[in-house]
Each structure stands twice: as C-alpha cells, then as structure tokens.
Automatic annotation (TrEMBL):
Residue ranges occupied by any ATPase AAA-type core domain in the UniProt entry: 26-345
Gene3D superfamilies linked to this entry: P-loop containing nucleotide triphosphate hydrolases
Name under which the protein is recorded: Chromosome segregation protein SMC
GO function terms (MF aspect): ATP binding; ATP hydrolysis activity
Higher taxonomy: Bacteria, Bacillati, Actinomycetota, Actinomycetes, Pseudonocardiales
Length: 398
C-alpha cells in the first residue's frame, strides 16, 4: 500500500505524555487495561472530528482542554501536540513525507484562559522544492522549503478554527490540493466498535450504495449490499463465519415490505428447523459478523481502529481473524488494541506494540522496540509473542 500513515507523535493528550508510534499496514497495541491503548485510538477520532466539526466543537465534545490534556505531573501542561507523518499526497515518499502538526496552547490571563492553535503542513511539490504552510491566529503563511516566502495573508480563519477545513480554498500552487488530500484522509479515519444491540436489529434498505457505519448499526443492509454487489466477497465472508461458527450453514435475509422496507439478517443453522433471526443470536456471533463486514468492506477508510477486537470471540476465530486483518490491510491500514495473549500469539514482531503505564500515569508506547522484540523472540527459541508477553519477558504485565 503506497499511500499510508507512517508515524504518529503525541504530547499531553490524555495519558499520552510523549509518544512516537510507527505504523505499519497492521499495527496491534498490546497491553493491560489503563496502559493507554484506547487513548491512541482517541487521537485519531479527535483528528477526524476536527475536520467534520472543527477544532473548537471537537474539544467541547470531549469536555474541553482540561479534560483532554495530560492529568499527571505537578501542574497541568500548557499545550497539546499531535503530529502525523504520511505519504498521502501525489509526490510524497518515505524520504520526503507529508507532515501535519497541530499544537493547541492554553494561556492564562487575568481575564481568563485563552486557547490558541498553530498548525503546520509540509509536503513535496513535483521535482522541485516543497511547501510549508503555517497557520497561527488568523493568518496563513506559505513558504517554499527551499527558503523564500511565496504567499502570506489572512484568509479569514477564526482564531480557534482548523486550517484542515479552510485551506483547501488555497489556489493549487499554494497547496490547496495537497491540504485537501491530507484532510480527506484524516476525515476518513474510523474507530470501529460493534454496537451489538443495534447491529442485531432490522434496518431500512438503502436507495443508494451502503457504507458500513462505525458501530455496524446497519449490518443487515450492508451485508445485503455486499451479497448483491460482490457475491465473491460475500461468499468468502460466509465461509469465514462458518469456520468460526461450526453450526452455521448460511447467512440469509428476511425482508419486511409493510411500510418501512426493512431487512434483517437470519442464520440457517445445522439441526434447526427454522432460521435464527440475528436478534436472537449470541453476542459473539453478532460481533463476529460485524468484524467480518468491516474486513470485507469494499471502500475502507485510510485507517481503521478497533478496540479489543477479540472481545466476545471464541479463541478458534482468532487465527482466521488475524489472517483476514493482514489481507484487508493491503487496502487500508488497521490499528488494533487488545489485551489477549491468545491473539498476540498470532502476531509478528513488526505488528506487535507493547504498551505500559508508568508510575506518573503516562503511557509508554512502545515500551519495547521492534528490534528488542525480535531479539527476545530469537533468544526464547521462537516462543509465541503472547506467551512471552504474558510471562513478562516483553514487559506490559497483565
């Protein structure tokens, strides 16, 4: 996958006092509860929300600066910093990546606290020098990375608004196209969590192409769309479901034509005279189908985050799930959080990120380098990663 997120740097966001996380096609955060795995996912949700609603509403939705900033230490930090490095724009590469950095600063004044933001975009331009756009206050400055300033001026940005939604108005030479590419990727980030009660219910059949909701609340209509538009993928999904659910024979649909045109999933199971409505299926069955729908999504976002992906699943499903994650990560990056040694056993060192919590309440992510993980695996006669982590050999005590 050529276009991808390369790394994430965070300072003072919840428990993330200071982290620098490299991201592959599949990255799995492994650690006990409270180690900060969820907060990494929340960074991506925050970035996407900034584009959907703008910076101030995104902060307000999370309780404001005081609720988001790191709570450890003797006094609260005065700023939050997030930096994403990627290869999303046309001429970017690992050697000349795109960079987006956001810093939110709180200044204490006699009249009350004042928040400000500073944003920086940097990207490559064809074969020549790149561009750096800096937003501070209401002003955006565009300079060539070779030195000379190209453009400077106010473009009507509110003091606590994000340039991600405003700067695409810049003309092409100044970087509007590149900023749009970065904004589109960030806005597509998805934090996926199957809401089992909602996923069980019948839903209205859509008139247009269906997109899988972040909580799988439209699972029935999405699976119906997949069967109609991509029968091969639907059959593969069904085979995976049979592998994890030995009693399952097939996945089908029941249509309700009175008034609302709704559809519901029903399961044909071995030994039963009647199909089982999904509303009567087990928690684990519903969650498995939601995760499989995610992995077979024909139009995935740039990055999908899933917390505790193994929750509610039988261990026999984990081998298949990891293999499908690797296949799906050829089209979209995946960031997964788990505290399951059984799932970790099936990972490779380059996919495995150990998370720990320090005495001051901050998160150590990664707590062990990939090189050290490989060395420890080799020294242990290639024991599975989950077993090594559970034993304490890789840190991250349970």
């Amino acid at each position: 996958m050529d276009k991808r997120l390369v790394s994430l740097e965070v300072e003072n966001f919840r428990s993330l006092r200071k982290i620098h996380l490299h991201l592959g096609d599949l990255t799995v955060l492994v650690g006990p509860n409270g180690a900060g795995k969820t907060n990494v996912l929340k960074v991506f949700d925050f970035l996407a929300d900034i584009i959907r609603t703008d910076l101030e509403p995104a902060l307000d939705a999370r309780g404001g600066f005081d609720e988001v900033v790191f709570h450890g230490g003797d006094k609260p930090p005065s700023s939050i910093r997030i930096k994403a490095t990627a290869t999303w724009t046309t001429h970017s590469s690992r050697n000349a990546p795109d960079e987006y950095e956001l810093r939110i600063t709180r200044s204490r004044r006699s009249s009350g606290d004042v928040l400000s933001r500073r944003e920086t975009f940097q990207f490559k331009r064809t074969q020549g020098r790149g561009r750096r756009i800096t937003i501070s206050g209401q002003q955006a400055t565009v300079v060539g990375t070779g030195g000379a300033e190209d453009t400077e001026g106010s473009i009507g940005i509110k003091s606590l608004s994000s340039g991600l939604s405003t700067l695409p108005r810049l003309h092409g030479e100044a970087g509007g196209e590149e900023v749009s590419a970065v904004a589109d990727r960030l806005a597509s980030f998805r934090v996926f969590d199957v809401a089992v009660p909602a996923a069980r219910r019948p839903v209205r059949v859509p008139r247009h192409r269906e997109y899988l909701e972040d909580d799988a609340s439209n699972l029935a209509s999405f699976l119906l769309m997949l069967r109609r538009s991509d029968p091969t993928s639907f059959e593969r999904l069904q085979e995976d479901a049979r592998q994890a659910l030995p009693q399952l024979e097939s996945i089908d649909f029941e249509h309700f034509t009175s008034g609302t045109r709704e559809v519901a999933v029903v399961l044909h199971e071995r030994g039963l005279r009647r199909p089982t409505p999904l509303v009567d299926a087990s928690y684990g069955t519903v969650r498995l189908l939601g995760l499989l729908a995610l992995l077979y999504d024909p139009q995935p976002p740039a990055l999908t985050c899933v917390e505790e992906i193994d929750h509610g699943l039988h261990p026999q499903a984990l081998e298949m799930l990891v293999e499908r994650l690797r296949e799906a990560s050829e089209r979209s990056q995946y960031l997964i959080a788990t505290h399951s040694p059984a799932l970790a056993d099936r990972l490779r060192p380059e996919e495995f990120v150990v998370c720990e919590r320090r005495e001051d309440g901050s998160s150590a992510i990664p707590a062990v380098s990939t090189a050290d993980i490989r060395r420890i695996v080799q020294a242990s006669d290639d024991l599975p990663l989950g077993e090594l982590w559970f034993s304490g050999a890789l840190g991250g005590d349970l």
